[in-house]
Design a protein that fits this description.
Helix content is 17%, strand content 29%. By secondary structure, the chain is an alpha+beta fold. The strands form eleven sheets. It has a six-stranded mixed beta sheet with strand order 4-1-5-9-10-11, with helices on both faces. A five-stranded antiparallel beta sheet has the order 21-20-23-24-26, with no helix packed on it. The longest helix is centred in the first third of the chain and has 15 residues, at 204-218. The N and C termini lie far apart (90 Å).
Length: 704
């Protein structure tokens, strides 16, 4: 029997250790010298996020010296050489003679000597963590020093020497500088960490650069995070889903060609004279510029399906990959022209077998040209069934009250298009005004038709943009007057069924026709607007040049840098400006009444972190705001047109944001963000190429 046991022990010892992802998270807040308001929430939220990303997490709050040493000791003793380890600390720290110390609570620290003795030495921390294959250290601890012996301490933290090839240290701000405590639930640094940790396939170096840029913008460059260390292997908080090729062979291939060779790999090169998304065996793998090519290695030998999809084409080709060989596929313009899919119908005439049997949008009749052939003026009297804005020949002339006679005198004689715009209905008819005569119109409910299903009319007006509350982020100040022209806006976020119908693909993580589309970049949202405009016989708003790099896009992380120009006079669909979005969210200037869009009770109107079960929900399942718009305080963040920039106090008319910038604005909160991030005035910024499972959009149209 003892021989059997010996053999078993040898076998066990020879088995490779299972690599695991482990995290130690510490938040210290309740210091005798003063409470840190973000630290506990920072640690709690980071721990929850890392747990969701597959880490085994040990979370500790308000540790004294003994507790700190025990927590670190227990954590590192469980590490093995194959593990990935993350250490996050939020709290006070001190720099003494070039060494950093993490400070516990409930310790009387009145000198540098006692600080060094009672606190945890970060050099020792790095040494302990080095037993893991990879260790990531994140310190949100560069705050102002509250201790009385401050002359013995230098501001901020000192550089730390990470183990070459296996350690990476991320600081909340630069060497010798202090970090900002947040006015919201999280510090600006941790807020950006949380916003980007879930992005799949984001390398740690790119992750830090994004966080650094975001924090710099939030704090107006008062705080700029930085990192140190070199890793031999790539590290991702959220790992990209691996591509698992699966044969999807078309029926026209010979039978013998439909089987994969079980062993061996080769490479694929795909070229295209037109831009588009490339799919390998049904799996999205990359977007390509027009005229560019891409190479993929380690592709199993056999027949593979390659698909090119863009707003105009959807073409499938089969490609044979041979052992240790490179197969080349060229989607050229002539070839694609042969297979070009049929022109899609206007969405107002989709048949009952369509993805959207209840069309969201319909083609509207064109406005007749005003004919002022008759001299003089006349009078127009309107009795309307609803309160409406009135337009005569495309010009706003006033408002009418429901059921009351409203007189418009001295209108130039001629032929006009008369339009009455209600929130969800409109009336359009051709009228003729005669000199010195009165035209008396009585309009009943039957004279009105609904707007295209997903659109609501927003009357123009003036409001105070920005927050009323002084404790909100500086990004939401100062309040300033904004005047807007009327427009139409979709009452919900764009749903997946409409997106799929228009674009031919759907990259949303959680799929369902009535769910908002997600994982859509700023550029893709613009392309959708253009395609939908063309389908409905409207003039597209955007000119997108994928070959010309945009000098106004200052984001170094944007791998696409498409040049985009907006025709603001076009009648097609576009993204809302930030001002338009906030105006609708607040129903004009009603933010003094409700903090969230539609209610002070966020649960009534929003899917957010406390009620969403960490996933998107179907649109329009919460209560709308008083103007009839849904989900403006949650479910998914929504792209806006503007570059992220600071507010100023000057009055603005139809503002469109700065001409250049790093990030484009997103508004509205999301399913995994807290209530503080879901108010009508909360602002976020993302790179134009950025995609995430919490980021979607809605659309607007000019009235004329």
């Amino acid at each position: 029997m003892k021989y059997i046991v010996t053999v078993l022990m040898v076998v066990i010892c020879l088995c490779p250790l299972q690599a695991m992802r482990k995290a130690l998270v510490i938040g210290n807040a309740n210091y005798a010298e003063g409470i840190l308001h973000n630290s506990i929430d920072d640690a709690t939220d980071i721990a929850a996020t890392l747990k969701d990303l597959g880490f085994t997490v040990s979370l500790h709050k308000d540790l004294n010296r003994e507790g700190f040493y025990k927590a670190v000791g227990d954590f590192v003793s469980a590490l093995v050489s194959s593990d990935e380890a993350v250490f996050f600390y939020s709290g006070h720290a001190a720099q003494i003679e070039g060494t950093n110390y993490l400070i516990p609570i409930n310790e009387h620290i009145d000198s540098a000597t006692r600080c060094a003795y009672l606190s945890y030495n970060t050099s020792m921390l790095l040494e302990e963590l080095s037993r893991a294959a990879v260790s990531i250290v994140i310190l949100d601890a560069c705050r102002d020093n509250p201790f009385e012996f401050s002359r013995s301490l230098r501001s901020g933290l000192a550089p730390m020497k990470a183990a070459a090839g296996s350690q990476y240290v991320i600081f909340a701000t630069e060497e010798g500088k202090t970090a900002v405590e947040g006015e919201n639930r999280n510090s600006p640094f941790t807020e950006s960490l949380l916003a980007n940790m879930r992005t799949p396939g984001l390398k740690i170096t790119d992750f830090v650069q994004i966080v650094s840029n975001e924090v710099a913008i939030k704090t107006r460059e008062r705080q700029i995070p930085y990192s140190t260390g070199i890793l031999r292997q790539d590290f991702y908080f959220a790992k990209a889903e691996p591509i698992t090729p699966a044969p999807r062979i078309s029926d026209n291939l010979p039978v013998e060609a439909k089987t994969f060779t079980p062993h061996g790999v080769g490479s694929i090169i795909v070229k295209t004279s037109l831009g588009g998304d490339i799919y390998l065996d049904g799996n999205f793998i990359q977007s390509l510029f027009a005229g560019n090519q891409a190479t993929w290695t380690d592709i199993p030998v056999g027949i593979h399906e390659i698909k090119l999809v863009n707003p105009r084409e959807s073409v499938i080709r089969n490609l044979k990959v041979e052992y240790n060989q490179t197969a080349v596929l060229d989607f050229d313009t002539k070839e694609i022209a042969k297979d070009k899919i049929e022109e899609k119908p206007v969405l107002g005439s989709i048949n009952t077998n369509s993805l959207s049997p209840e069309p969201h949008f319909v083609k509207e009749p064109p406005l007749p040209i005003v004919n002022n052939a008759t001299n003089g003026t006349g009078t127009l009297i309107i009795t309307a069934a609803y309160e409406c804005d009135v337009y005569l020949g495309g010009q706003f002339i006033g408002k009418v009250e429901a059921g009351q006679k409203c007189k418009f005198a001295k209108e130039n004689a001629g032929v006009y298009t008369l339009e009455l715009m209600h929130r969800s209905l409109f009336c359009r008819r051709e009228i003729k005004i005669h000199n010195k005569e009165t035209l008396n119109l009585i309009l009943t409910t039957s004279d009105y038709i609904p707007y295209p299903d997903a659109l609501l009319y927003v009357s123009g007006g003036t409001f105070q943009m920005g927050t009323y509350f002084i404790n909100r982020s500086s990004e939401e100040h100062p309040r300033h007057e904004v005047q807007l022209s009327p427009f139409l806006m979709s009452k919900t976020e764009i749903e997946q069924k409409l997106w799929t119908e228009v674009m031919g693909y759907n990259h949303s993580e959680i799929k369902g026709g009535n769910f908002p589309v997600t994982n859509v970049s700023f550029y893709e949202a613009l392309e959708f607007c253009n395609e939908l405009s063309v389908r409905n016989g409207l003039t597209p708003c955007y000119i997108i040049d994928k070959k010309l790099l945009d000098p106004n896009n200052l984001c170094v992380l944007d791998t696409l840098h498409y040049t985009v120009v907006c025709n603001w006079k076009a009648n097609g669909y576009r993204l809302p400006t930030e001002a338009e979005w906030e105006y609708v969210s607040r129903c004009g200037d009603s933010y003094n009444k409700v903090q969230f869009s539609g209610s002070n009770n966020i649960s009534k109107v929003s899917w957010y972190s406390d009620n969403s079960e960490d996933r998107i929900q179907e649109v329009a399942t919460k209560e709308p705001n008083e103007w009839g718009f849904y989900d403006l305080s949650g479910n998914v963040l929504e792209w806006c047109w503007d570059y992220f920039d600071a507010y100023n106090k000057q009055k603005q008319v139809n503002p469109k944001g700065s001409e250049k910038g790093i990030y484009h604005i997103a508004r509205g909160g999301s399913f995994y963000r807290p209530a503080d991030a879901s108010t009508c005035t909360a602002r976020f910024g993302f790179a134009s190429h950025h995609k995430s499972n919490e980021l979607g959009f809605r659309i607007v149209r000019n009235v004329h």
